[in-house]
Amino acid sequence: MDVFNRLRSTVSNLSTVLPGNPVTREYEIIKHVGSAGPGLLWKIFQATKRSTKEEAAVFVLEKKQLDRYSKRDREHVMELLKQGVAQLTRLRHPSILTVQHPMEESRESLAFATEPAFCSLANILGETENMPVPPPPELKDYQLFDVEIKYGFLQVSEGLAFLHNDVKRLHRNLCPQSIVVNKKGAWKIAGFDFSIGANNPQDPQPSYRSLNLEPDLPPLAQPNLNYLAPECVLADSNDTASDMFSLGILVYAVYNKGSTLYDANSSVASLKQCINKHLKHLSSGRLNALPEDAKEHVRMLLSVTPDIRPDAHQFSKLKFLEDVGVKTLQYLDSLYQWDNLQKSHVYKGLPQVLAQMPKRVALHRVLPCLVKEYANADMVPFVLPSVLLIAEQATKEEFCSVILPDLVPIFRLREPVQILLIFMQKMELLLTKCPPDDIKNHVLPMIYGALESDAQQIQELCLNIIPDFAHLVDYPSMKNALLPRIKRLCLQTSFLSVRVNCLVCLGKLLEHLDKWLVLDEILPVLPEIRSKEPAVLMGILGIYKLAMSHKKLGLTKDVMACKVIPFLMPLTIENGLTLNQFQAIMGVVKEMIAAVETEHRAKLEQLNSIKQEQSAAMEMTNPNEIVPGLTLSTKANSTTSNVYDDLGISNFSAQSPNASASKSPTHKLKQQSLSMEEKQRLAREQEFQQRIQTQPSLIPAKPAPTQPAHKPKDLTSTLINSNLASLNIRSPTGSNPFSGSPGFGTSPNYASSPAGDFSSAGMSPAMPQWGFQGAQQAAAPPMATPARFAMTPQPLNRQPQPQQQQQMNTSAFDNLLPRLGSGPPMGAPRPTLSQMGPPAINNFGNFVSAQPPVQNSTPSFTTPAKPLSKSEMDDFLS
Predict the structure, then answer these.
(1) Is the peptide bond before 416 cis (omega within 30 degrees of 0)?
(2) What Gene Ontology terms describe what this protein does at the molecular function level (predicted)?
(3) What φ, ψ does residue 48 adopt, rounded to 5°?
(4) Adjacency order of strands within the sheet including 99-105
(5) How many other C-beta atoms are found inside a 10 Å radius of the C-beta of residue 30?
(6) CATH topology (fold) of 392-598
(7) Is pTM beyond 0.85 here?
(8) How many CB atoms lie within 10 A of CB 293?
(9) Which residues of the chain register pLDDT less than 70?
(10) What is the largest CA-CA distance in the chain?
(11) Top-level CATH class of 17-199+212-321?
(12) In this predicted model, what pLDDT tens digit does every residue of 663-705 receive, in sequence order?
């Protein structure tokens, strides 16, 4: 509840005090940050100017704070305060608080605007009158650093020197309430309420009117007696040495956390007693809190004799103020008077000094001086290292609010090229500190500009650092902006080192990309690189190796077999390769071949197992056999045949029946390993085949022909037989002269019958060469022996029975056999005409229809066969 009450009180103060003051028309009040002035009557508010949005501070005095005093005292205090603000407005010096808007008075308040202020030195030392409740978080645990203290004293001494030597004016109330610390941390003199000018400013030794201290005046109407010089009370005189005494007490108070040498309790009489007690006999133990090199000079400043005290100029030259940090801050404040060469010397050594400075001093005191140089592009490369060093020490919030707004315009600069070089070296810092929107809008475009730069050094540095911050770049920017520029630079650059760095950069980026982005964007660009230097080839090889071996990526067998391996193989014979480089390329190629082989073999084995599961039972017969019962001899395979057999294309060429039949399932098992199910299936098939072969041949029963009751006389046969008898011609031995031609009763599906099989039909192998049967035989009934023509099935592989007597040579008719598409393969013997056998002829000289040959156990032969002469052969063929 307390918090809400305080907040309501603050809001009511702003609404009741400020709206009636004209200052609020030009300045927008933000928050209450501190207090300053006599009795800390002035409230300090953080504000911004409405027209320019510049930061400022508004000092407000509420008149109701003086209501406890009498009208005379209230008017006296108001007069002193107005006089002090007016005097402050007229003074302009780096060590004096700058007034931006003069004092405005309303019925409730007085107000004026100054440069941005943090608080007063009294607030830092622990005085909290007129402070907001609770105090600002910036003031919590706020401690002054040694460099801040020393440089603050230096600034105050410089301000006093300006007042004493140039303006001829005394301050006469130099104390922590009169010193304002601005937003940058600089100490500025204010509180000129009791200031007085010289009576004779033109004289080398001007005189000043004495300070009339009336005992009945309220504390607000007199200076802070704890800081007042002794002569102002004891001798009723004052000069520049009086301000130096106040400076000595100020040094003592700062090093003693706000405690003064004595406390006068706002009483002049008490002040006199303290002077006699503490100052005239000042012991060294009272100064133990001061730095060792400052004790002697502070003792001199606190001397009762004014002539012993150092003046402002001498104080600024004291040894204890000659600190490296103090000198650096002093140089930075005076750099606007120097030329570029002098500035460059200071900025070059600044990073070493910043490493020893506190972060607050560097951020709020040094940085503003460096930012002023952004307007001079030639000096930007000299101040950027220091700015980025301060950025490393700052938090992300401090970077975004204090450093980044001024850096954004510098991101767009391309000249001098050192600017890009410095940013590239600190790119990880920028990507870590900057918000995502600023990275996308400002930082990444700067990287793209560096890749498109003409400076080789900038390009190489950019390529070297891109992998370090790749994890901070979002995926769309990586895919659509960064990668295309790297690929274009790799293809178009004329510098070998830049091309190699492009390839190395792409290789390091692979782990930040996905598989398909690598396959679609990275790998296709590698064959387009025309350069074949060994360094380039090793860069390309590295990308392939990383893409193949990385667990997140991997190359498919199609990409390796169709694109990568055909591209890498010609690279192995490049002339510039060393042995190690050649071995590296061959090693990657072998790994890819092994990967393709393993993956594709697994696929084929899977497909093969599926086909075997879906295939039918093994073929029972050999479809390549043309003539049953014939065994064809095979020729020895030549080396050429073996080569083609090993290539696995024998399925596209004709095979011999014997070779096909000879391949048993056992032989196939040797070709490849079979599963248990496949072995069981083959065993069942073998058993079934053996069972078929051992079964007896089936003999179909042919019905006996019926004899007609009255058989008509065949006139044609009678005429032919009578003519034959008159000619007395004997039939040739062996077979019908027309047995070699197809269509005369010969069937390719059955084995030929031996010559003795025709004896039952009235034909004898001993007949003359061209004769037919005699008259006696011709007169025999045509169906005299029907039982001899009973047919029995022959086995498929039945071999022809050997001839016991010489048969006629019919090899000349072998070429008349038809060539079937499924005949025996090349090199296998064809059956001869004599092996085919003659067709059977009945008693009437007609050819018997194609039937299986009749089994004849006792063939009869009369006379040996007479071989055909050449003339007979010609007559027959014609």
Answers:
(1) yes
(2) ATP binding; protein kinase activity
(3) -135, 145
(4) 27-36, 42-49, 55-62, 109-114, 99-105
(5) 15
(6) Leucine-rich Repeat Variant (1.25.10)
(7) no
(8) 12
(9) 1-19, 616-673, 696-714, 727-868, 878
(10) 193
(11) mainly alpha
(12) 444 444 444 567 788 888 888 888 888 887 777 666 665 555 5
